[in-house]
Amino acid sequence: MGCLLFLLLWALLQAWGGAEVPQRLFPLRCLQISSFANSSWTRTDGLAWLGELQTLRWRDGSDTIRPLKPWSRGTFSDRELKTLQQLFRVYRDRFTWDVKEFAKMLHLAYPIEVQVSAGCEVDPGNASNNFFHVAFQGRHILSFQGSSWEPAQEAPDMANSVIRVLNQKQGTKETVHWLLNDICPQFVSGLLESGKAELEKQVKPKAWLSRGPSPGRGRLLLVCHVSGFYPKPVWVMWMRGEQEQRGTQQGDVLPNADETWYLRATLEVAAGEAAGLACQVKHSSLEGQDIILYWGGSHAFVSLIFFVVLACLMFLFALIIGVTFRFKRQPSYQGIL
Ligand SMILES: *[C@@H]1O[C@H](CO)[C@@H](O)[C@H](O)[C@H]1NC(C)=O
Ligand SMILES: *[C@@H]1O[C@H](CO)[C@@H](O)[C@H](O)[C@H]1NC(C)=O
């Protein structure tokens, strides 16, 4: 009995938890891509996103990080931004130099590709977490954890040699720690303020159906396209009545050029079973008014038009016959009078 009560309570708590609206977070993600064709030819590019929106770009060779949004500078003063810019320029030069030194020391073969993904996230209670990951030749090798560098899981041996050297540079570690724990959360808080309107925008999806390439004799590939929505989370499913069709296959959510998203969901069925299927779309911008598109809906519409035209024609035909009949009768009618 006690167990049953406990289960009931547990189920209630689960339902309670499930009803909570998840808080949307906007992590700042900075991506650095450094390519070393040989010991003399290198380039480094930088990009930054807040949530789904690209906010900054730093092209190779350029002295300044370019804001891509009117609110990309957050609430930092020009002086603060200038100091940071200076710091990143020094970082870029030191980074390039360090990688070449490591290549010499560890006899690494060119071309070399190094990627850095770093940033932070601030939750509504102002708590923040951060990350700094480094990949070598496309493989995650080390991260900054707490206040020092640590190898990634299953990192190659060379990662340990690199980390031994990096962990001796106390000044660099303190700067990275400061950037990740103080500067990044402050910058993100400012961005959340200055970019609020655009970050919280809602753009409704458009949806349409098409027929995909035939998967085989007597079979159909139904395609449901959903495009132009923002933010990214979306739910698209092929349905028969209330029944979700488990065969529904979703593609990747792909970016449109206007900072909205595109997704397609396909379902393979026997040709005879397509009628009555519908594609259903749920998205925050629709405020509960789901989009539902029926397969063959356009055919039903065409038949409706056909019937309307037919009815009009019949009416016209009846009218003509009636008029002709009246004209024929009229003389005799007048004749009687
Ligand atoms: C280094 O790579 C660049 C770009 O691929 C190439 O143009 C250049 O000739 C190379 N230099 C040397 C010294 O190999
Ligand atoms: C979070 O920090 C901002 C400024 O940094 C402040 O305005 C806001 O009141 C803080 N929020 C909470 C919940 O502490």
TrEMBL record:
Main localization (coarse): membrane
Membrane topology of the entry: Single-pass type I membrane protein
Subcellular location: Cell membrane; Endosome membrane; Lysosome membrane
InterPro entries: Ig-like_dom (IPR007110), Ig-like_dom_sf (IPR036179), Ig-like_fold (IPR013783), Ig_C1-set (IPR003597), MHC_class-I_related (IPR050208), MHC_I-like_Ag-recog (IPR011161), MHC_I-like_Ag-recog_sf (IPR037055), MHC_I/II-like_Ag-recog (IPR011162)
Residues annotated as domain Ig-like: 185-285
Signal peptide residues on this chain, from the entry's feature table: 1-19
Keywords: Cell membrane, Endosome, Glycoprotein, Immunity, Immunoglobulin domain, Innate immunity, Lysosome, Membrane, Signal, Transmembrane, Transmembrane helix
Pfam families (UniProt xref): C1-set, MHC_I_3
Gene Ontology biological process terms, A to Z: antigen processing and presentation, endogenous lipid antigen via MHC class Ib; antigen processing and presentation, exogenous lipid antigen via MHC class Ib; innate immune response; positive regulation of T cell mediated cytotoxicity; positive regulation of T cell proliferation
Matches recorded under SUPFAM superfamilies: Immunoglobulin (SSF48726), MHC antigen-recognition domain (SSF54452)
GO MF annotation, one: exogenous lipid antigen binding
Transmembrane segments: 292-325
GO cellular component: endoplasmic reticulum; endosome membrane; external side of plasma membrane; extracellular space; lysosomal membrane
UniProt function note: Antigen-presenting protein that binds self and non-self glycolipids and presents them to T-cell receptors on natural killer T-cells.
Name of the protein in question: CD1d molecule
